[in-house]
């Protein structure tokens, strides 16, 4: 296996990759690190695009060097598979990762247990999917075969929405968002909208290793006074101590695009197409983009779930 880095990796690095996981530290000697596409194998069987959605375009361009290789998309959010299918004719596989990862100086850290969902998108990929599942399982990452890629990706989206945009806009940890009555109601509204969009597409929620989507849906059906304290603790633990991606971008001093268009924005876009109301998701997507452009704009919600709730519920798009 060759890991192709986009920067900071030499043309050919031979040091073992170190995985810091919930069960300890492990050196991986079977992975070769490369810093340029021409240092990768000439004809790989599989190319996995492990980049953020906003970097998918350049990654697909790089992958065009291997037009016949099966391509696997592992992006959070909705739309990666359609973008890949539009520019390639090779077989496609969709992946959904449910563990929290962070880069380290010597490799990568898994902040919580989780797993991987694998689903076919296009072409005859059964043998390769089975081989890939076995390889990840051998590496300590439980896998689940999902027959419907769209259902899998939308199910993973539910987990990605949880305390992501709200945590970023409020600059609060996930548990603090869910323990607040206004924060809880805002979270519940966005998730129920996403579920309505799924139902309109004929998609059913699927279970993913470590995804805890079933428990999330159960919590949404309970009275708020019962669900809020329990879910606040559970969701805080599920993050594994890692801030949500949008909070890292808005409140961590980052620059460049956000993933909001493919998260809350994807729910709003699908809702508009299917005539399903998604006002809270549309508002959260727009507010995240506003703060990304002007960080000072987020000061009016920092630490104040009631203020954010009022802005999102009463939000109206500019004409």
Can you put this structure into words, describing what you see?
The strands form three sheets. The chain has a five-stranded mixed β-sheet, sandwiched between helices. The protein is α/β, with parallel strands linked by helices. The protein is globular. It has two domains: 146 residues, NAD(P)-binding Rossmann-like Domain (Rossmann fold); 159 residues, N-(1-d-carboxylethyl)-l-norvaline Dehydrogenase, domain 2. Helix 4 packs antiparallel against helix 7, helix 7 packs parallel to helix 13 and helix 8 runs antiparallel to helix 9. Helices cover 44% and strands 16% of the residues.
Task: Summarize the topology.
Layout: E1 2-4, E2 12-13, E3 17-21, E4 24-28, E5 32-34, E6 46-49, H1 56-63, E7 70-73, H2 80-87, E8 92-97, E9 101-104, E10 107-110, E11 116-122, H3 126-138, E12 143-145, H4 149-161, H5 165-170, H6 174-179, H7 181-200, H8 213-221, H9 224-238, H10 245-251, H11 264-274, H12 279-293, H13 305-313
Parallel strand pairs: 1-5, 3-10, 6-7, 7-8, 11-12
Antiparallel strand pairs: 2-5, 3-4, 8-11, 9-10
Helix pairs in contact: 4-7, 7-11, 7-13, 8-9, 11-12
């Amino acid at each position: 296996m060759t890991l192709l880095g986009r920067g900071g990796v030499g043309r050919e690095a031979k040091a073992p990759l170190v995985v810091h996981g919930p069960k300890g530290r492990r050196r991986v000697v079977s992975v070769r690190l490369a810093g340029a596409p021409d240092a990768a194998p000439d004809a790989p069987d599989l190319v996995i695009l492990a980049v953020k959605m906003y970097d998918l375009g350049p990654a697909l361009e790089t992958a065009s060097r291997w037009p016949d290789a099966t391509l696997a998309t592992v992006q959070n959010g909705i739309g990666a598979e359609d973008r890949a299918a539009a520019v390639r004719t090779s077989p496609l596989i969709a992946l959904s990762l449910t563990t929290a990862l962070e880069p380290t100086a010597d490799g990568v850290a898994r902040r919580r247990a989780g797993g991987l969902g694998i689903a076919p998108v296009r072409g005859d990929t059964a043998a390769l999917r089975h081989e890939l599942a076995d390889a990840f399982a051998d590496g300590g990452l439980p896998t689940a075969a999902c027959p419907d890629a769209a259902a899998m990706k939308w199910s993973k989206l539910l987990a990605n929405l949880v305390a992501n945009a709200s945590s970023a806009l409020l600059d609060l940890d996930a548990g603090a968002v869910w323990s607040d009555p206004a924060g809880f109601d805002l979270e519940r509204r966005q998730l129920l909208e996403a579920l309505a969009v799924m139902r309109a597409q004929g998609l059913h929620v699927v279970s993913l290793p470590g995804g805890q989507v079933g428990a999330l849906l159960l919590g949404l059906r309970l009275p708020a006074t019962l669900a809020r304290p329990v879910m606040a603790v559970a969701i805080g633990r599920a993050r594994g101590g890692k801030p949500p991606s949008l909070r890292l971008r808005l409140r961590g001093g980052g620059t460049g695009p956000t993933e909001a268009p493919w998260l809350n924005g994807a729910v709003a876009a699908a809702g508009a197409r299917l005539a399903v109301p998604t006002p809270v998701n549309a508002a959260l997507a727009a507010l995240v983009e506003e703060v990304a452009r002007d960080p000072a704009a987020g000061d009016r919600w920092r630490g104040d779930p009631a203020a954010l709730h009022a802005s999102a519920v009463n939000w109206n798009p500019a004409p």
